[in-house]
């Protein structure tokens, strides 16, 4: 799973993804419920990172007990069945999430050390996402939102080191979650293919795709 990443700037999105730069401001880092850019077929827009179910009473989805729903990550195994995501998945509402890098907690030393993940080739990530447009029940305001698709990466030589291990579970049953990178030659398939074609792209990436190391705490404050 991912809870913090650096989005790609508008001009780079225009150049690398071949769409007009998204309209709207977003910050140098994106955390849950904050705005970030997404790429659809033929366009880019700024949306909330945190998928808003269509029956939600507000843009901050809540559980019946009053706690906030965590909808920034969507488990690949449940895209077709989870009440929150299944309609958007069936309708092909998939997106790419442009990111310069993302952060994950590395527990290989026995304690948390935040690590940062770039592409080894220096290009921005295009991470698999699912999106929707929520309509406010009182004002009719339309709010786009998205979730990042995650997959099981148990046993991966790099991604399997992330997240705190559960000592009560075997190594092959930890369910270490990670993002789903989509390569440029598969962008069209992810965005416009059938659900079967899109699901076939959810594959654990080779470790050679990554450049990774400890994250630097300082972040430049700016708005895109």
Automatic annotation (TrEMBL):
<protein>
    <recommendedName>
        <fullName>Abasic site processing protein</fullName>
        <ecNumber>3.4.-.-</ecNumber>
    </recommendedName>
</protein>
<dbReference type="GO" id="GO:0003697">
    <property type="term" value="F:single-stranded DNA binding"/>
</dbReference>
<dbReference type="InterPro" id="IPR036590">
    <property type="entry name" value="SRAP-like"/>
</dbReference>
<dbReference type="GO" id="GO:0008233">
    <property type="term" value="F:peptidase activity"/>
</dbReference>
<keyword id="KW-0645">Protease</keyword>
<dbReference type="Pfam" id="PF02586">
    <property type="entry name" value="SRAP"/>
</dbReference>
<dbReference type="InterPro" id="IPR003738">
    <property type="entry name" value="SRAP"/>
</dbReference>
<keyword id="KW-0227">DNA damage</keyword>
<dbReference type="GO" id="GO:0106300">
    <property type="term" value="P:protein-DNA covalent cross-linking repair"/>
</dbReference>
<keyword id="KW-0456">Lyase</keyword>
<keyword id="KW-0378">Hydrolase</keyword>
<dbReference type="GO" id="GO:0006508">
    <property type="term" value="P:proteolysis"/>
</dbReference>
<keyword id="KW-0190">Covalent protein-DNA linkage</keyword>
<comment type="similarity">
    <text>Belongs to the SOS response-associated peptidase family.</text>
</comment>
<dbReference type="GO" id="GO:0016829">
    <property type="term" value="F:lyase activity"/>
</dbReference>
<keyword id="KW-0238">DNA-binding</keyword>
């Amino acid at each position: 799973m991912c809870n913090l990443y650096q989005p790609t700037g508008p001009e780079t999105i225009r150049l690398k993804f071949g769409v007009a730069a998204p309209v709207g401001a977003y910050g140098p880092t994106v955390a849950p419920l904050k705005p970030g850019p997404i790429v659809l077929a033929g366009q880019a827009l700024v949306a909330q990172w945190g998928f808003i179910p269509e029956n939600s009473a507000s843009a901050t989805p809540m559980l019946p007990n009053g706690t906030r729903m965590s909808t920034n990550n969507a488990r690949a195994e449940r895209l077709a069945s989870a009440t929150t995501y299944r309609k958007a998945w069936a309708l092909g509402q998939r997106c790419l999430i442009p990111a310069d890098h993302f952060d994950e907690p590395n527990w290989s030393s026995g304690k948390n050390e935040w690590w940062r993940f770039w592409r080894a080739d220096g290009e921005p990530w295009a991470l698999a996402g699912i999106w929707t447009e929520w309509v406010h029940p009182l004002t009719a305001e339309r709010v786009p939102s998205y979730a990042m698709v995650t997959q099981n990466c148990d046993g991966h030589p790099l991604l399997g080191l992330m997240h705190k291990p559960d000592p009560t579970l075997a190594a092959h049953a930890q369910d270490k979650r990670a993002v789903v990178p989509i390569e440029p030659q598969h962008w069209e398939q992810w965005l416009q293919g059938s659900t079967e074609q899109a699901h076939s792209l959810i594959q654990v990436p080779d470790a050679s795709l990554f450049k990774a190391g400890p994250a630097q705490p300082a972040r430049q404050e700016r708005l895109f």
